[in-house]
Every structure is written in structure tokens, then in C-alpha cells.
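F.,

This is the one I mentioned.
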């Protein structure tokens, strides 16, 4: 398994909300080891509050959050304040999920079965560049 590292000089923060606590812990650990500040949220409402307060470089949302869907949270984040990069994680790939991700303005959609390396790669691609 190859690991994609995130350059330490980015020193950016990320909000991560996922229903699977073990997946969230593994992803959080990987991002922190790579130099990111990670803020975990258990609900969509908490993810929105953290996003408003911290203005993270990237927001990562499970589409199956307990209080409201990641789809809805993504849409709310994008409507409340444009410019956020939101990555959605879905358990099963379907064409409907692709269409819905586009509709709610997600920067990317990652299949959970592809694992944390795929998520890291999408975050790298979605994060704003710090180059002058």
C-alpha cells in the first residue's frame, strides 16, 4: 500500500465528519502525520459550525451522517459561504451518487472502499495551492 504524503508546508486545516469512527480515526491520523490540523465532527451540524469558525482548506463528509446527509451538509456549506472545497465519501459507487455530488457542489466524491490513500489524493487535489 503506497501512501501519498501531504507537504508539511501547507499547514492547513481540515474538517472531517464520518459515521464510521474507526475510518475517521485512521484518516485523521494519516492527515495529522502529514502535517494537517484535523477537526473531527460527529454530525453535519457540527461540521457546519466548525467550517464556519475555522474556514478549513477542505471539508470531508460521509454521505451517511446521523443527523443529516452529507449531501445536504455539502449543499448547506456551499450556500452559506461559497469557496469551500467539500469532498464526499460514499460506501457504494453509483451513477446517482456522481450526479448528486455534482448537484450539491462537491469538489470530489470518494468511494470508501478505495480507502484512505484515495481520500488523501482527493484532498491534495482539492486543497488550495500555497504557491505564490
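My design for it:
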Amino acid at each position: 500500500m503506497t501512501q501519498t504524503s501531504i507537504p508539511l508546508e501547507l499547514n492547513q486545516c481540515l474538517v472531517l465528519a464520518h459515521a464510521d469512527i474507526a475510518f475517521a480515526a485512521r484518516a485523521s491520523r494519516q492527515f495529522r502525520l502529514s502535517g494537517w490540523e484535523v477537526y473531527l465532527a460527529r454530525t453535519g451540524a457540527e461540521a457546519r459550525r466548525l467550517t464556519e469558525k475555522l474556514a478549513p482548506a477542505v471539508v470531508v463528509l460521509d454521505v451517511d451522517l446521523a443527523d443529516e446527509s452529507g449531501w445536504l451538509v455539502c449543499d448547506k456549506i456551499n450556500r452559506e459561504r461559497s469557496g469551500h472545497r467539500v469532498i464526499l465519501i460514499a460506501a457504494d459507487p453509483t451513477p446517482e451518487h456522481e450526479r448528486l455530488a455534482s448537484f450539491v457542489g462537491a469538489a470530489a466524491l470518494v468511494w470508501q472502499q478505495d480507502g484512505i490513500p484515495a481520500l488523501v489524493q482527493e484532498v491534495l487535489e482539492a486543497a488550495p495551492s500555497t504557491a505564490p
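Residues 1-10 have pLDDT under 50 and may be disordered.

Talk soon.
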